[in-house]
Structures are given as structure tokens and as C-alpha cells.
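Quick illustration for those who missed Monday's session on complexes.
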Amino acid sequence: MGSSLLLSPISLDAGPKKESQWLPAYEKLESEGRLFQRIKQAYAILENCQLCPRKCGVNRQKGVKGFCRAPVKPVIFSTHPHFGEELPLVGEKGSGTIFFSNCNLRCIFCQNWPISHEGKGKEIRDEDLADRMLHLQKIGCHNINLVTPTHVMPNILSATRIALKKGLHIPLVYNTSGYERLEVLKLLDGIVDIYLPDMKYMDAEKASKYSAGASDYPEVTKKAIVEMHRQVGVLKMDKLGIAVRGVILRHLVMPNRVAGTEKFVKWVAEALPQSTYVNIMAQYRVEYKAYDYPEIARGISAQEFLEAMDSAEKHGLTNLDPQSIALRNFYRHRQSNGVPLKSNDFSCFEVNKNI
Ligand code: SF4
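Prediction with iron/sulfur cluster bound:
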């Protein structure tokens, strides 16, 4: 358990004067005296780790590692302003991204595999993580974007409270594969302002094949996303178009309809408001072990991307990511001018690249 847990509830007057009226969810929870209790509950889970649906049951407090191979302290690969995320997260000064090493899903096409699979990075204390959050805020980032946070959730809560004491006041973005337990997500209720989940596949067999046996991914993730929406709702932005609260849902189009895009958009239309912010992503590229799977050993074609976007529109989704719409319009314009869609038109595209 991080030493921060020994702190008594903190004074909200301790931090520097705020520049805006925005109050992050975690600040309200702390003012009600409830954040400390959540951190204790979260750290207790590590003793018999059930932080994610893998439910390894190992004692991470004693350094035993489970499927994710994560130690008890967070391992960080990098911390920096990121300009490749969705525009409401990026704004003018960037999304304050913290890349956590290790992962509880470990997809065979992971574009960050040296970090997620091999755990490259530096082990730090919760206090250091808090300092990194404050640094990102200080240089103007609009949010703290926690990439692959699931296996280090207790450390994040602890660091958030330490940083709050020193003046943190920008929203947390929970940037997750979506493979989350409902019970664990409930601990984040009133702490996270923006959820940024993936919905990778709709089919159990595909999830198992490409994500290390996680056949329950579609069902678990659907429930998780509904819970995220219950907590924070449809995306809201301030007057400058910067995201302050809500869900941004990502779906990566894969070659040969592997991601089940048609089923995905149908599910969104049925389970969530049609105004849910959905990013249909074209950035798939062949990485890591994807070369060994012929059906995904190529980039997607323009035709596959257009089919995905058409499907989203057909099912009535009204809040698609503007960059995806621009890309669709670009290819539609070419088509209307008689330019044929090549089979692998997107092999050179890296839209919304994560690093
Ligand atoms: S967070 Fe890691 S150790 Fe804990 S249940 Fe998930 S994969 Fe296992």
C-alpha cells in the first residue's frame, strides 16, 4: 500500500488558487471525505488481485505477479503532452498522457507492445506519479490521460489524492481497453470524469484468439461501457470545446471485419444514447505478432473504413469523431471524382496514433 494512505483527509485549501471554476469529480469526493476510503478499498483488492476480469488472485502487495506481470508499484514508460488523441482531449496544449507499462489484455497486434507486453519503463512511487500529474497540469495540459490504467488503479487513486493536495484540478481520463470489472469501476464512480474505453471485438472467439484467451471480453466490456456511461454520461465540453466529462468510445476497424464493426455500432445504438461520442478509428497497422495471422496481416482498406462509417450512420449514431468524418469525406470526394479506392489505401495512415 502507498504511504499516502497514512495521510489524514486533506484540506482543499492546500493547493494553489484555481484558474477556472471547473471542479473535478475527485475533488468533490474528497470534500465529502470519501476518496480516502476508496483508496483503501482499491489497495485491499491487490492482496488477492481481482482488479480485472482475469482475477488472478495473487498477492501483489507481496510482489507476486499475475497475468499482467505488474509489480505493486506503477511502472511508467513516458509522460508527455499528446496531440494525437481526440480533439476535445487535445485542445491547444495537449492531453497530459501517462503511459503505464504492462497490460491485462495483451493483444497480439498491440502497437505499444514493448511497453504493454514487455513492461519497459521505470518503477516509481505513488508520490512520483502525483508529481508527474502536477507537471502535466503545470505545462498546460487539459487533462491527465491515464493509458492502460486498470492494473495500477489503486496507485492512480492514491497519486490523485496526493496531487489534489498540491493543487491538481484537471479531469482524469481513464484510457482503457474496456476490459474492466463492474465492481472495480464502481470504485471509480465520482473520481474519473472522462472514460475513454475501447470496444475491440464483438465476438468471443476473436477476443480469445487475439487477446490471450479473453473470450469474455465482448460481454464484460459491453457491461463496463454501460456502467461508464451511467457514471459520467454523454461527453460534455466547455466553451472552448475541451472535454470536461463523459464517455469517448473508441472502435478500431480491423481488416476482414475482424472487429465486428457492424455489430458494434448496432449495439451502441441500442445500449447507449445515439449522441454518444464514438471514434471509428482507421489507424490499424500490422504490429508485433499480427504478422502470424494472415487475416490481420495488412492495414485496412479505404473501402473497409467507409463501410464502417456508413454502418455507424445507418444505425443513427450522431456524434462521430470529426477526424473520422473528415477522413470519410476525403475518400468520398475522391470517389466522386472518379478515383478508385485502392485495396490497401490506409497502409500509410496513422490517425490518432497512441504514442
Ligand atoms: S490486474 Fe493483473 S494480477 Fe490483477 S487480476 Fe488483472 S491481470 Fe491479474
